[in-house]
Structure formats: structure tokens, C-alpha cells
């Protein structure tokens, strides 16, 4: 089922906003060493993220910083609900492809193909992913359809 042109996805909307890390750390009065201790993310990596040297860190690193700073993933992964693809749902859950695949009972390559909408999304797969992502199967199906209907050359 194709999406109407008004429902097609503009991937430029997807934004990873890392500014809250420094803002919240400073508001708490924490040093980078303190955040390192609480998040198990190296001071070097924290500094690189805060200074914009690392613009797209590993999502599990982001999740550790989010947890340590008492933030939510949606505070840093800024993707409007109506344009979220399967990879966005995974990022909002703070999971790598490997972690999500393992927890959902599939191989990482199989999940990668689903995220790119190169294979069909079955109800069984959607339910398995929804359980791990803490969402509904219909949300997973909708995210997959957005990936399926994205413009050529657009990442999923």
C-alpha cells in the first residue's frame, strides 16, 4: 500500500540533538569525569560529543548518557511521529541493530533488510519488534511502510 504524497518521508527532519547532554550535565553541576562514572562513557567521548566533534555517536552510547542524565531518548532523538521509520523506532528505544535483532529473535542482517524495507513485514515480525520496542505492531507496520515508500536515494 503506497503512501499519499503528503505522507512521504523527508529524512532531513530526522535530527540527533546532542546539546542537552552538556546543558543538563552543567545544570547538575557535574564534571565530565562524574558523567563518565555514571554512564560508563569515556570522558574523551563525552567531550567529543559536547564539542560537536562526534555528531552521530553509537546509539547505545547515547542511551547510556540519556539514562545517566535522567533524560528520555525523545529529548535527543528528534523525529516527528508521523515520519518515523523502523530505524527511528530502534533509535528511540536506544538499541543497536544487533541488540534489537537478538531480542526480537532474528538475525541482524534480517533486521537490516526490514529497516530498509527490502523484505516484507509480517504480522509475526511486527509483533516481535513491537514487544522489544515497547510499541504496537501497527506502529511498527506504519514505520516499515514509510521506509518502503521513501524517495529513491533516501536512507531508511
From TrEMBL:
InterPro entries: Cro/C1-type_HTH, Lambda_DNA-bd_dom_sf, TransReg_Diox_bact_type. It comes from the Bacteria. CDD domains: HTH_XRE. GO terms for cellular component: cytosol. The keyword S-adenosyl-L-methionine does not apply. SUPFAM superfamilies: lambda repressor-like DNA-binding domains. Pfam families: HTH_3. Keywords: DNA-binding. Residues 21-76, 86-140 form the HTH cro/C1-type domain. GO terms for molecular function: DNA binding; DNA-binding transcription factor activity. PANTHER family: HTH-TYPE TRANSCRIPTIONAL REGULATOR, METHYLPHOSPHONATE SYNTHASE. This is Transcriptional regulator, XRE family.
Amino acid at each position: 500500500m503506497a503512501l499519499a504524497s503528503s505522507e512521504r518521508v523527508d529524512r532531513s527532519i530526522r535530527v540527533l540533538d546532542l546539546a542537552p547532554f552538556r546543558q543538563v550535565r552543567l545544570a547538575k553541576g557535574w564534571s565530565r569525569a562524574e558523567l563518565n562514572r555514571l554512564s560508563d562513557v569515556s570522558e574523551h567521548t563525552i567531550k567529543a560529543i559536547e564539542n560537536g566533534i562526534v555528531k552521530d555517536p553509537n546509539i547505545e552510547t547515547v542511551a547510556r548518557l540519556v539514562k545517566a542524565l535522567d533524560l528520555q531518548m525523545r529529548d535527543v532523538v528528534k523525529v516527528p511521529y508521523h515520519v518515523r521509520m523502523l530505524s527511528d523506532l530502534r533509535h528511540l528505544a536506544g538499541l543497536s541493530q544487533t541488540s534489537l535483532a537478538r531480542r526480537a529473535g532474528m538475525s541482524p542482517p534480517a533486521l537490516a533488510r526490514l529497516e530498509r524495507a527490502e523484505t516484507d513485514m509480517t504480522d509475526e515480525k511486527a509483533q516481535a519488534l513491537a514487544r522489544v520496542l515497547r510499541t504496537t505492531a501497527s506502529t511498527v507496520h506504519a514505520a516499515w511502510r514509510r521506509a518502503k515508500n521513501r524517495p529513491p536515494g533516501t536512507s531508511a
